[in-house]
Amino acid sequence: MADPKMKILVVDDFSTMRRIVRNLLKELGFSNVDEAEDGAVALQRLQNGDFEFVVTDWNMPNMDGLQLLKSIRSAPALKHLPVLMITAEAKKENIIAAAQAGASGYIVKPFTAATLAEKLQKIVTTQ
Question: Any alpha helices (H) in 28-104, and if so which ranges?
Answer without folding.
Answer: 39-48, 65-74, 92-100
